[in-house]
Design goal:
By secondary structure, the chain is mainly α. It has twelve helices and no strands.
C-alpha cells in the first residue's frame, strides 16, 4: 500500500480567487529583500531596528500603544526561539508570548493562561490541530488564519491582538519565509489600521468573500513589511 501525505486543510483557502497571486507577490517581495541582498547583509543594527519597527507596529494597533510597547519589545527578542515551537507545541509558544507581552499589565495569575470555557477550548484545540498539521506550503495562509482565529477568540482576555499578530509572524519564521524574523509583518498591518480592522471583521463574518479578503490583506501586509525592511537596511 502506498502511503499518501495528509491533505492540506488550507488548500481550498489558498486557491480562493486572488489569494494565489497575492501570496506570490508577498513572497516575491520578501525574497527580493532577503535572498537578493543576502541574509548576511542584515547585521545587528538592522535587525535591532526592524524588530523595533515590528514591535511598535504591533503596539500601535492597540488602544494603548505606550502601555503595550514594552511587552512587544520584550517579545521581539524571542521571536526566533518561539518560532521553533509554534508548529510543535503551539499552546506553549502562545502562552510564553502572552507572558512576555502582558507582564506588568495583566494580573500575574492570568499571564499565559487561556480562558477555560468550552467554546474557547474547542476553538483553540482546532487551531492547535491546524498549526501542527498544516503543510509548510501554506505558510502565509496558515499565518493569516492563526492570526484571525486568535484575534477572534481572544483566549487570554488581554493582549490577544498582539499575540495574534505575533503568531502570524512566528509561522512565517518557522516555515522559512522569514527565517531570521527580519520582516516587520506587524508593522505591515499597522501601516493601514482601517484596512486591518475591516479585514478582521470580514473574516469574522464567516463568508467566503470575507475570508478571501482577509487572506489578501495579510499577504499585502507581509509585502509592506518587506518594503519596510528594505528601507531600514538601505538607511
Amino acid at each position: 500500500m502506498v502511503d499518501h501525505p495528509p491533505a492540506d486543510p488550507l488548500a481550498e483557502l489558498a486557491r480562493l480567487e486572488g489569494v494565489p497571486s497575492a501570496v506570490a507577490a508577498a513572497i516575491d517581495s520578501v525574497d527580493a529583500v532577503l535572498r537578493d541582498r543576502g541574509l548576511r547583509a542584515f547585521g545587528p543594527e538592522v535587525m535591532t531596528s526592524t524588530l523595533l519597527i515590528g514591535a511598535r507596529g504591533n503596539a500601535a494597533l492597540t488602544d494603548a500603544p505606550d502601555t503595550w510597547l514594552p511587552g512587544a519589545v520584550r517579545l521581539s527578542a524571542e521571536l526566533t526561539t518561539l518560532a521553533a515551537v509554534i508548529r510543535v507545541a503551539p499552546a506553549q509558544a502562545l502562552a510564553r508570548a502572552h507572558v512576555l507581552l502582558a507582564r506588568g499589565v495583566a494580573p500575574e495569575d492570568q499571564l499565559g493562561r487561556i480562558r477555560s470555557d468550552p467554546a474557547t477550548a474547542a476553538r483553540m484545540a482546532g487551531l492547535t490541530a491546524l498549526l501542527t498539521g498544516a503543510r509548510v506550503g501554506s505558510a502565509l495562509v496558515l499565518g493569516a488564519v492563526a492570526h484571525a482565529e486568535l484575534a477572534t477568540v481572544a483566549p487570554f482576555g488581554s493582549a490577544d491582538g498582539l499575540v495574534a499578530r505575533v503568531a502570524e509572524h512566528l509561522v512565517l519564521i518557522s516555515s522559512g519565509v522569514d527565517p531570521r524574523g527580519a520582516v516587520p509583518v506587524e508593522a505591515g498591518h499597522a501601516a493601514d489600521p482601517e484596512a486591518y480592522g475591516r479585514g478582521l471583521a470580514a473574516y469574522r463574518s464567516g463568508s467566503v468573500g470575507g475570508v478571501r479578503g482577509w487572506l489578501v490583506h495579510c499577504a499585502t501586509a507581509v509585502g509592506r513589511g518587506a518594503e519596510l525592511l528594505g528601507a531600514s537596511s538601505a538607511g
